[in-house]
Write a structure and sequence with these properties.
451 residues; alpha/beta; Rossmann fold; Helicase, Ruva Protein, domain 3; 3 domains; five-stranded parallel β-sheet; elongated; binds adenosine-5'-triphosphate; binds magnesium ion
Length: 451
């Protein structure tokens, strides 16, 4: 079933006007006719039409001029040109000027039905594209890289310059400093922005599975390979692949990866046929790759290929002046998400947030604000919404409370609790931050009876 559309036909030939009208009305459309360009435009400006059928040879105002007025007023309206056999050239010219397509006379009802259907479809796609683009822009707004500090300015300057190129970029920085965000930023500002951005976590799978995840496999290449599978490189074709935690890949896969970069082709596991891929590679790690190269755990040639442009992201505590900006940014983001209007953050709180060291970096700050927005009962963030996060105003762990200094055990307990909460109970991350191994942490958690 076709949807009802409003259609305007501008043609001085009465028989064409009538017959087209009849065909389209039978399709369920609402049709209006005009016998010359002036009347046609008058109608067009007064009423709403989904599509226009336009004769090129008209008395008075010429069809081509009518076309340019319509396209200027509403570029989304498809205009179908009706033309005599003798004037195919001008029909072609009209398409150059924005007409959707043309119908050469004489045409039969079926041709008319098909072309109007296509025109209506193209109108839909036009709006879908606008929708997708605005959705994308919105996403970009929320995923904006915030930061005015000197170090971030430098980072953003490199990002701006490297984005439109095809260079491989190696992004380094500790957990939560924004490596993935920067990778997305580079993709979103590249010529590949409307193509896929594919994230691969290089630490997530065992080697054999990982190889097929990256390059795909053919049916029967190993037990469990029931069907041919497209690897992430094929999925990312035309776009960007982001190899996260790149330090985790085995020497064997490092060799394969090097080949992809050099030859621009992949081979599925179990196949010998190379497949061309056009993919830009971005990689990230929170380890020191140069160190791994020295230890023989990472190929030197691959290291140089990956780090054509290196970008290092600073710790949040090294750019505390960005904290107030980030707080406002995350407030805006989580207000929108949770339909709240919390816009007051006292100076006191901002100070407390700037005093804290943020071992989990921006991710920790973001989680803190999200939590505070969700928990807040007023239009203001209260200190108590933050306090059990280890963030406190004024008083520090080291200040005397109730007139006495704390014991070392008390401080240790409090500090472990603080970091554990900031890491949302993640013991491995907490242990790493505290510089002890997991076992020791578990023992201490037990000793101090920390929940
Ligand atoms: N400069 C920034 N401005 C705004 N938001 C940021 C910024 N940097 C990071 N974020 C946000 O902080 C969170 C963590 O960032 P991201 O995931 O990019 O870090 P990461 O370095 O990849 O961390 P990990 O090593 O743990 O994977 C994300 O939600 C991201 O949007
Ligand atoms: Mg990450």
């Amino acid at each position: 079933m076709t949807e009802t559309a409003n259609i305007l036909i501008i043609d001085d030939d009465e028989t064409i006007l009538d017959s087209c009208s009849q065909v389209l009305k039978r399709e369920g459309h609402i049709v209006k006719g005009a016998k010359d360009g002036e009347k046609g435009l008058e109608l067009f400006k007064k009423e709403f039409f989904h599509i226009v059928l336009l004769d090129l040879k008209l008395p008075g105002l010429d069809g081509m001029e009518v076309l340019s007025v319509i396209k200027e007023e509403s570029p989304e309206t498809p205009v179908i040109i009706i033309t005599g056999f003798a004037s195919i050239d001008s029909a072609v010219e009209s398409i150059k000027r924005g007409a959707f397509d043309y119908l050469a006379k004489p045409f039969n009802p079926e041709e008319l039905r098909i072309i109007t259907k296509k025109a209506l479809e193209s109108r839909k796609i036009f709006f879908e594209n606008i929708y997708l683009r605005t959705e994308l822009e919105k996403k970009i707004e929320f995923n904006m890289v915030v930061g005015k500090s000197k170090v971030m300015e430098k980072v953003l300057d490199i990002v701006t310059r490297v984005s439109p190129t095809e260079s491989t970029v190696l992004i380094t920085g500790e957990s939560g400093t924004g490596k993935e965000l920067i990778a997305r930023e580079i993709h979103n500002h590249s010529l590949r922005k409307y193509a896929p951005f594919v994230v691969v976590d290089c630490g997530a799978l065992v080697e054999t599975l990982f190889e097929s995840e990256l390059f795909g496999h053919v049916k029967g290449s190993f037990t469990g390979a029931f069907e041919t599978k497209h690897g992430r490189f094929e999925v990312a074709n035309g776009g960007t692949i982001f190899l996260d935690e790149i330090s985790n890949i085995s020497l064997n896969i490092q060799a394969n990866l090097l080949r992809v970069i050099q030859e621009r082709e992949i081979t599925r596991v179990g196949s010998t046929k190379p497949i061309k891929v056009d993919v830009r590679i971005l990689a990230a790690t929170n380890e020191n790759l140069a160190d791994l190269v020295r230890k023989g755990k990472f190929r030197e040639d691959l290291f140089y290929r990956l780090s054509v442009v290196p970008i290092h992201l600073p710790l949040l505590k090294e750019r505390k002046e960005d904290i107030p900006l980030l707080v406002d940014h995350f407030l805006h983001k989580y207000n929108k998400r949770s339909n709240k209007k919390i816009n007051k953050v006292s100076q006191n709180i901002k100070k407390a947030l700037m005093k804290y060291d943020w071992p989990g970096n921006i991710r920790e700050l973001e989680n803190t604000i999200e939590r505070a927005v969700v928990l807040s009962k007023s239009d203001e963030i209260e200190l108590e919404d933050l306090v059990y996060h280890g963030i406190r105003s004024g008083s520090s762990l080291l200040d005397p409370t109730d007139g006495r200094y704390k014991t070392l055990d008390e401080i240790e307990k409090e500090y472990i609790k603080t970091v554990l909460q900031a890491q949302f109970g993640n013991k491995s991350k907490t242990a790493k931050i505290l510089g002890i191994d997991r076992k020791t942490l578990l023992a201490k958690v037990k000793k101090y009876n920390i929940q």
